Every structure is written in structure tokens, then in C-alpha cells.
Fold this protein.
Amino acid sequence: MDLPGKKSVTVVPAGGALGADIIGVDLSRPLDDGAFKAVEAAWHRHLVLRFRGQRLDDPGLLAFARRFGALDKAPVHAVNDTDHDPYPEITVMSNIKVDGKPIGNLGHYEAEWHTDMSYNETTPIGSLLYSLEVPPEGGDTGFSNMYRALETLPADLKRAIVGRSCKHDSSRNSAGELRKGYTDVTDPRDAPGAVHPIIRTHPATRRNALFLGRRRNACIVGLPMDESEDLLNRLWAHAGKPEFAWYQKWKVGDLIMWDNRCAMHRRDAFDPASRRLMHRTQIKGDKPFFDPSTLAA
Ligand code: OGA
Ligand code: MN
């Protein structure tokens, strides 16, 4: 029998490029420090963690997320303002409409591979997504290991990006919708957004990852547009390879957390007549950096 207060945490890797299930943890109760440390270590190792069969209300989701750091307010939305009072750190992700008005973000569309909010100077450490309603099929979320993408990059491509930075456009979301208050970008070099190193050193693991935000309107600083386009196309073709990815098929009560510093994600479209409802929160991050000493062989 387990001693009171002593929780065992079991980590079951998904077996592919990233992802692991955490078994034996009830997230509606505070984790003791030992269990929290085990979860955090598993997160750094596996990049994406899944906790199945949870029963979380909003305060419970926020309390667990806050163990990893301060939380961000919701990002700027495309369609409507879906601030989820009284919890501004929670964003509703949903296609559901009430009285013809969407109650959440991202609708039922496909969301292309992306990093969350990389168009800001400081970018979230990670996000937590908790499922309340899931469609019978579709709406799977894919995650991709950007350490692995960098490690396997052909040598000439790697040489071409060492020391280079990319501009991350902030005007459109991952479903391609123009955000409220933004105008269309005609030249990516004029796009609003932040500039970050393309090779990013993870501040906790000290490992380097390929750091791409969104393909659309991206450009590599200091290169002519045609060279920038060519390099970005080759980088994205590589990063999107299925061998770096793992897909989550949602069940109600799944909580997924991903490390936004070393994993990208995407979502399949689903039938707009079905309902999908998730509550989401994200951990405030830091300014992406590259530590050249990590490249010393
Ligand atoms: C997100 C996101 C995908 C999904 O919450 O940042 O991209 O599966 N969500 O809803
Ligand atoms: Mn996202």
C-alpha cells in the first residue's frame, strides 16, 4: 500500500519521436513535490505528456499549470473575443456556436504546423489543453519533435541556418485567419512580429531545437527573398516529416501539455456538425536564444 501523501508516477513513452502517458496521477489534487519533479522530468524528456481520465474544473487546470510558472492571458483572437471570465488565463478552443456566435477559437478547420505565439518577443514555455467534448472522429492533434528535426537536418541546411534568425509573422493564426486589428501582409519582410534565432537552445535541457513558428509570411533576416523562401521551404519540408510526429486521438478527460520550445503542433479538421470543446491555458515564457557553446563538438 502506498504511504499517505506518496504518489507513484508511471511514465509510459508513446514509443515514437515524442510523447508519453503519465499514469497514476489525479490532477484535481495538488501533486507533492516528488510527483511534480517526476512529471517535469518526463516533460523535458518526452516533450508532450498526456494524462487520461482526468476530471478537472478551471481552477484545477489553472492550479496544475501554475506549478510550471506564471500563466499567460489568452492570445489575440481571429473571430471574436472569447475571454473566459472569471478566468482570463483560460482560452476556450471550440467550434461550438451559441446563438450563431462561436464560443471559442480555431473552429473546425485544419490548423497547420505551428509554434504558439512565436511572433512575440517572449514566447510561451508550453500549453495545456484539456478536453471536455470530442468529435467522434477527426480533430486529432499532431506534435512534432524539433530536437529530432534539427539533429537530422542535412549538413548543408544546418550550415545555412547557424547564426541566422527568422521573422515570425503575427498577423494570422494557425488556421490562416487574419487576427482582429491586423491588415494583410504583402511582403513578409514588412510583417509585424518578432525575430528569433532559427536554432534555439532550450533553457532547461540545454539541447538545441529547430525553432520555426508558422510558414506563412515567414522570412529569414538578411537574405534576399528568393533565398529565404527556398531555405524556409526546405526547412519546413524536413520539419513536417511524419517520423518526427505523434498524434493524439482525443478522449474526454485527456489533458495534454506540450513544450512549445522544442515541439510544434497541428490539428486535423473535423466535421463542423460535431462538437469539440477544450479548455486551454499557457505558461508564460522567455526570449528564445541560441547558445553557440552548445555546438562545440
Ligand atoms: C492550441 C492549438 C490545437 C487543437 O491550442 O494552441 O493549436 O487541437 N490547438 O485544438
Ligand atoms: Mn496552437
